[in-house]
Design goal:
By secondary structure, the chain is of the alpha/beta class. It is 49% helix and 16% strand. It has a five-stranded parallel β-sheet with strand order 2-5-8-1-9.
Length: 323
């Protein structure tokens, strides 16, 4: 079993490296995002991205979906989108004399929801069941979703015009979150050079790139990741980080138990990406921001004084003893 696990973990690390290198041919920067997407996929979670427009979020997702041979669909958030536009609707078929399901874009392997916080709260809530239970209910009938099933949602900064902030319960459904900013000066220059050379054409890139993995491969990888060893002291470290968010003076609402699960699954997946059959504290620390940032709510006083979730998480990392 140990030799088989080692072989599986090496295959995961090699596949990730191949995907990362191929993606670099058209993606400038955003390497942490590629890692975050891969970790989310093989740990069975969903990813929330916050960032300004024009940071290649959609392009990254399309490339990853292409390299993993996923059925990819995208929904553009807008205030007039209704729940039925996402999950589907049952319509009456006169030829069959019965109601049939007209599936919405949620029936896919890889769903990207662009600007989720431009959707109304009613439409946002339609995604909760799909994300947590991998099924949707239409007219009292439950329909299973594809397996594997993965959601990435992007949102604009909360102070952007025309947005509806996600409630805490919905943010908690995302296993990880990340933020994207504009490129650094050198990366911005490299982007311009590649555009001038015609290297950023998505159509040409899609046609010349073949999938590296399939859905069955990813399911096999997910099974191997569950065998990664985690010592009790590392488990206790995950617990201590989560508990610290519940007692910190600047936090009004600390992380839920889903954060503990995200730490465990994510750190096991990250260990596999780096070719290890065991989790180390650095895996946990690397995931602290993605796991906790969207799960904590600061007190009003802390927010007014300019304290951010990121600064509080770094403070917790410095204060909790590392095993």
């Amino acid at each position: 079993m140990s030799e088989n696990l080692t072989e599986h973990i090496e295959a995961i690390a090699n596949a990730y490296e191949e995907i990362r290198l191929i993606a670099q041919q058209v993606i400038v920067g955003n390497q942490p995002l590629i890692e975050g997407i891969f970790i989310s996929m093989i740990s069975g979670g969903h990813l929330l991205i916050e960032g300004v427009p024009g940071t290649a979020k959609t392009t990254v997702c399309k490339i990853i979906a292409r390299l993993i041979d996923y059925n990819f669909k995208r929904v553009q958030g807008a205030v007039d989108i209704q729940p039925a536009d996402i999950i589907g609707v049952r319509i009456y078929d006169r030829t069959k004399s019965e109601f049939v399901l007209q599936k919405g874009p949620v029936f896919t392997n890889f769903l990207m929801i662009d600007e989720i916080n431009r959707l109304t709260p009613k439409t946002q809530s339609a995604l909760l069941e799909a994300m947590s239970e991998h099924q949707v209910t239409i007219d009292g009938i439950s329909y299973p979703l594809a397996d594997p099933y993965f959601v990435i949602a992007t949102q604009n900064p909360y102070d952007a015009e025309g947005t509806f902030p996600l409630i805490e319960a919905q943010c908690d459904r995302f296993m990880f979150s990340t933020t994207l900013n504009h490129l650094e000066p050198e990366s911005e220059l490299e982007l311009i050079r590649r555009e001038r050379a015609g290297e950023l054409d998505w159509g040409l890139y899609r046609d010349r790139v073949t999938p590296v993995l399939g859905p069955a491969d990813l399911k096999s990888m997910a099974a191997a990741v569950r065998e990664v060893r985690v010592d009790d002291v590392v488990l206790a470290y995950m617990r201590d980080l989560v508990l610290a968010t519940r007692s910190h003076g600047d936090i009004r609402l600390g992380a839920s138990s889903r954060a503990s699960i995200a730490f465990l699954r994510g750190s096991m997946a990250r260990a596999a990406l780096y070719g290890r059959t065991y989790v180390i504290p650095d895996d946990v620390r690397a995931l602290a921001l993605p796991v906790l940032r969207h799960r904590i709510t600061l007190t009003r006083e802390a927010a007014i004084t300019g304290i951010t979730p990121g600064s509080v998480i770094h403070e917790i990392l410095d204060s909790v003893e590392v095993p």
